[in-house]
Every structure is written in structure tokens, then in C-alpha cells.
Amino acid sequence: MKRLPLRHSYPAVLGWLLWLLVVPAVAVAQGATTITGVVTDAKTREKLPFVSVSVPQAAIGTNTDQDGHYTLQVPAQYTAVVFTYLGYRSVTKAFVAGAPQTINVALATSSSQLGEVVIRGSKPPRYKNKDNPAVTLIRQVIANKPQNRPESYDYVEYDKYEKMTFSFSNLSEKFKSRKIFKNYQFLFKKQDSTAAGGVNILPIYIEEKLAKEYYRKNPEARKAVELGNKQVEFDKNFIDNEGLSTYFNRMYQDIDIYANNVSLLGNQLLSPIADNAPAFYQFYISDTLRQHVPQLIELSFFPRNKGDMLFAGKLYVTLDGHYAVQQAHLSVDKRINLNFVKSLDANLEFALNPDQRYHLSKTFLGIDFGVTDKGSGFYGERTVSFQNYRVNQPAPESVYAGPARVALADSTSRRSVAFLEQNRPDSLSQVERAIYKNVDTLQTIKSFQRSLTLFTFVLSGYKSFGPFELGPANTFYSFNPVEGFRLRVGGRTTPDFSKRIFFETYTAYGFKDQQWKYFLSSTYSLNGQSIYKFPQHLLRASFQRDTRIPGQELEFVQEDNFLLSFKRGVNDKYLYNDVYRLDYVHEFSNHFSYSLGFRKLQQSPAGGLYFRDSNVDTPGLINQLTTSEVSLGLRWAPKEAFYQGKLYRSPIINQYPIFTARAARGFKSLLGGEYNYTNLSLNATKRFYLSQLGHADVALEGGYVVGQVPFPLLDIHRANQTYSYQLYSYNLMNFLEFASDHYASLFIDQNFNGFFFNKLPVIKHLKLRETASLKVLYGGIREENNPNAHPDLYQFLQDASGRPVSFALGSKPYVEGSVGIANIFKLFRLDIVKRFTYLNNPNVAEWGLRGRFKVDF
């Protein structure tokens, strides 16, 4: 691709970027001259962004914004201003002190840019860090990071305005002229062909937020007080507006260049000023801006390996002893292992504090998405501005208390929108203002409503009928060895039915066992909000009669999902369960929660499963096992975030741990309960981000059963006989193969994000990603729960030949591991799994191939 001259490097797609240096207080006190104007290219008349406008003698200045505009306040004693821009001749303009005036300037290109210079010679020297002045400079930036971060102050507060827009992009004239869009022509917009997203765009979404944010170092506290917000509102029967907003904000996070890793689209890219950046980036000094105040060094950087998850771009570093980043331009190479991203541009601006350090003043992030480079896609951009910055001025103690993000107590939706419109720091463009109106108009068109109905049903699996939703569709049909062909239909109420009472139900029928199954739950919200909304405070009563495989626990899917009907090996050991439950759940704003529950469970064996004791006096089959238990659950998930919508809530994985503890006490003779026991369990999970080596998901778990119980009441370890790769199940363990009354386990799932594949010829173009996992389980059964020592306990299972198929773990652990390839066609992961221990057990496989669908950026 032809490289454009520098004056085109950051066109209109970079957003509305304004550079403002604070005028010294003494100069303001003496009066100032306000100068405004526009800077253009003398030949093309194109408006020039980021031109330095300064008064060197006064140590003040600003930069032009994206449209070439600038505003500068100059102390009364100065009467000249200097315009400088890389590749252009500098211009000095005189003005009359004391009177506001407009100075428009046309800059001519310098002679060095008029001709092309071709240099031929020997191969350039190999890049190295040693004796490289650029690397010496970046090490100074790294060393000074602590003092240049906001966290170096005891207190910080500022106003934060966010604006996010999305459009369908690069739409061809043929696409626009299709008959289906006959009534939608008002939506299409034209834009500059050099802008990201192509010529034809269809703006569909805009969201604005205004907040006051506070930071306190000791004790550390962060608080955001929402002052106003406004977003496009789609029909709530089709689109979950809150969930849409959460998803977009997850994609477009704040860019903290001073952090070692920058979170972007659910991935982490190594910052160019990370502690170990010189090991992964190449740095070059590309210019010195001597007339800028303070003097700046332009530092260009590129990945050493083009396929690694790294940025390319420029840093402007101050030579005032602070070595602060005054401005940063970031992009990514198309060869980077990042899915669906056609282009990415980020811009960060920093403004001067009174103590001569810098704070973030404005950021822009624009990403053009698409399956192919030339096809239509999706373009989104987010602009954030930080104003009224105050440091080391503590707010009242009450400000830092409570949840990390709150809305004003007296705010309403209408007041919030009005406040934002009155206090918005940047005015909206004509296209942005039209999005609100156009989406409202779009939703009145019947063909659009029909398309949206189909789209939401395919994506969510539910069909909305106002107060009730029918679904999920993937459970309507399934099959298994016990029930045979199984049909199911169900649904749930929505907030349109009631904002306090929620019902969920289904009924199913197996054509082989000729039995009906059903479920009904009723949930009452004790805090008057949706039971899916954080924080939950609810009371739920439910009854379920259905089949279940002991030890099968699947992630985010129903057990009767059609795709999970396909299983390996013998998988006919089922239970008929009657479950009566009463649950109380209380979540707190600090993400600590507890739950109290009562459960009566009646388990009846089915298929190849049986309950039988070996008592010599009265041997025989047992038709039903009944237990009654009360439970207490504790959970703490600091800084947990959710994709949270009208009728769902899915956790967003981040770097913070999650701790859970549960204690269940069974009572004999309570509502038919047959055993006294206590079941204790602890679990801790955490994602570890390993920079260029990707991330590792780690889980530690342990459990202990107190009391003498039959094997169905032991901890039956999570097995998986489906062909789906399950992260927290043992993928080569058979159902009911192992049970324990005490155990400890470790799960590690490592995703290398293509760190090794990106360096291999040919393979690197496929953008594949490497995975590896290890699962270790220690456990056992005490003598009191050993059925061989206690004939009145249920026997472990045997097959038709009398061979045991259920076991207690011995002195060695159960171990399995896998290596795999992820991101196959950008949506599939395939693992080769190996089982290392207990290979002599019946019907086990030493090797297996497991797959998993997952769409990631």
C-alpha cells in the first residue's frame, strides 16, 4: 500500500482531538489575548490537524484539532505566535495585544518534501538496542512512568465525557440500491473516501456519558458519579439496549499507555512503554520538535515481529526532565493475530498540570471491523475528553464510600439526558445528531421489524411475545439412550409482565420412556429491579422433574442441548430427579454475596444406573434416594463485570479472582431425608495475563464430605463424554467413573494467542492460536464410606460382566492434559487430549479429540 505524506497520516477518522496547554496563572491575572483560527495546506487548502501553535517566550501553546482549528490565550505582553508542523515551513504571525482576533494561516511544504530521494547501497545495519539513542530515551520514559501516572497524586478528580458511535461501513452503491433498502435511503450517509469505513456508511448507534470521577491513593478508592447519559434506544422487545451498551463498552475500553498491557477487544497488547517493551519493539528517533514548548522528541516504534499482539505508531516525549508522553498515535499491523479488525487507530493527548506534569486530556479510538479487507463491515469510534482536572484536593470522605460507580440519587432518565445535553463539552456533528432520529424512524418500518425479529431469535434462541419469551430454541429437540427422542417447549416472563415477579417453565416428553418432565420456578425481586440485574436480591421457589447425568456439569448450555446429544462410549447412566428448592440470594455492591437454600431431592436410577446394597440379610435394588438439606453459599468477586441485559447476565472475565464457598447440611427424617451429612467445598478462579504469552485461566478447588453416605451423595467428579471441550470438566473421564469424600483439584488452561505460530512461515498467515491445558485431581474415600467395608452402603457400579466401572481415587492423582489449535476459521478450537493415569479402568480412552466453538477478537 502506498504510504501517504505525513499531512494525511491522521485524517478525519481520528476524531475531534484538541491539544491544550494550561496558561500560567500569573499571565491570566495580567490579562490575555484570545487568538483563534484555522491552519491549512497552502497548496491543497486541506485543513491540517496537530499543528503546533505556540508562543515560545511564554512557554505556552496548543495544537490544532482534527479540522485544523485552534484557540490560544496569550499573555498581554506578547504579540507574536509561531506555527510549526513537521514537513512544513514554520510561520510567525504578529497580532495586536488585548483584542480577540482571528489568524488563519496557510503553511507551505518544506523543500525536503518536494522531491523523492532514492538511496541505494549496502544492506542497512541490523537493529539492536545497544548504543541506540531511541532505546536510551524509551528507558527514561519507562523509568519515569510512576511519576507521570495519575496514581502518583494523593487525590485526583476530573469530568469525563464519552461519546461512542457505530456505523455499517464500506457499503457499495449496489448494496445501497437494493430493493430491500428502498425505504431506508434516508439512513445512508456519504463521507470522505479517505476516511475509515469507506464511502457509504449507515450510522446506527450513538451513546454519550458524562461523569465525575475521583481517585484516592490511600486507602485506594475509585469512584465515578454519573451525571448524564444518552443512547440510541432500540425496541426493547428485540434489542437489549443495556446489554448492547455493556458489550460496546467492553470492546472500547480506556487506553492506559502507562500500563504494561493495554486492554483492547478482550485482548491485551503490550504497551510501547511497558517495562519490557525494548525486547519486543524497535524504536527510532524520527524527529525533534525544537520549537515546541517544551521541546519534544518524536519516537517511532514498530513490532520486532509483525504478527505479535503489538502496536505501531509514534510517541511524542517531553525533554523537560519528566520524560512524559505528550501525545501518542497507535495503530496495528494487518498481520497481527487480531480477528475481524481491518484497521485500528488510537490517539492520546496529554495536557500540562500546574506542576509541569501531564494528565490525559483526550483520547480517540477508531476501529474498522470486517470479515474481509475489501468487503462491507462495521466501523466504531470512541472519543473521551477529560476536563476540570484537579489534583491533591481531597473530596469529602462520603464521596469515596460505596460502590465504584453510582448515579445521582435524584437523577431520572429525563433529567440525565437534559443535563448531558446542557453540559456536553463537544457539540455533535450533523451526522451524529441524526442518528437518534433516524433509528426512531427506522423502527417504524415493518420490514425492519420483521428482520429484527428473525435476527434476535437466531442469536438468542428466544422469541418474544411481549410479557413472555418462548425458548431456548436449541432445546426444542434432543435425544439420549433413556428418553430416546425428546421434545421440549418452554419460556419465561419478561419485565413487561412484572418487574418484581418472574416465572420460568418448560415441559418435555421422552418417546422412549414415555414420561413427562417439567419445570416451574417463581422468583420475587426484593429490591424492585430485574432479577438479572446486579445486585440481585431475590427469593425463588422451584420444582423440577427431569433426567440428569450424575457428574455432568456443562458451561453456559442446557444439558438437553441438541448438539450435546452426541456422546462417546457408554452413556446410559441417568437419574430421574424430583427437586424441590427454596433459595434466597443477596448480592452487595462490593460484589460479595451470600445465598441460603433448602432442597429436597428424590433420585431414582434409570438406564444403566442402579442403587444396590450388598447387605447379606436384605440385598436388593433401591428404587429411590431422598435427601433434605439446607445450604449456605458465600461468593466474593472483586471488581466483577457483566454482560447484563433484560433477561440474562453473563460474567466478563477479567484479571480479578473469584472466591466461592458452600456448606450443605443434610438432615435425616426431615421431609423424608435418609442421611445426616455435611458437604463443604471451596473454589478460587483467576485469569493471569502473561503479556505476549497470552493468558492462563487457573482454578483451584477442594471438597470434603462429613458423615457416612452412599456414593450418590459423595462428590461425583465432573466428567465429560460429549465431543465438546469443557474447560472445567475432565474430558476423558467417564460419567460416574470417580467419586470422593475428600478431594483437591487444579485446572490450568493456557492460551498463547499465537505467540509461536506468528513466527512460523506460511502458518503465521492463518492467524492460528496455540492452547494447552492441565487438569489434576487428588481424592479418595475414607473407610467409613467404603462400600466394601460397609455392606449397607450402595455398591459402586459394575458392568454386565461384573467389572467395576466406578472407583475411588487411590494414592496417585487423575491427570489429563491437552494441546490444541484455536482460532480455526476464527471460530473453532480443536484439542488433542491425553489421559495419563488410571488407563486400566474399563472403557477408557487414552487419547481424544475435542472441539469448542468460540468467537473472539
Automatic annotation (TrEMBL):
Transmembrane domains' residue ranges: none
InterPro entries in alphabetical order:
CarboxyPept-like_regulatory, DUF5686
| Organism domain of life | Bacteria
- Per the record, the coiled-coil ranges are none
- Pfam families, per this entry? CarbopepD_reg_2 (PF13715), DUF5686 (PF18939)
Quote the protein name from its UniProt record. Answer: DUF5686 family protein
Organism equals Hymenobacter bucti
| Phylogenetic lineage | Bacteria, Pseudomonadati, Bacteroidota, Cytophagia, Cytophagales
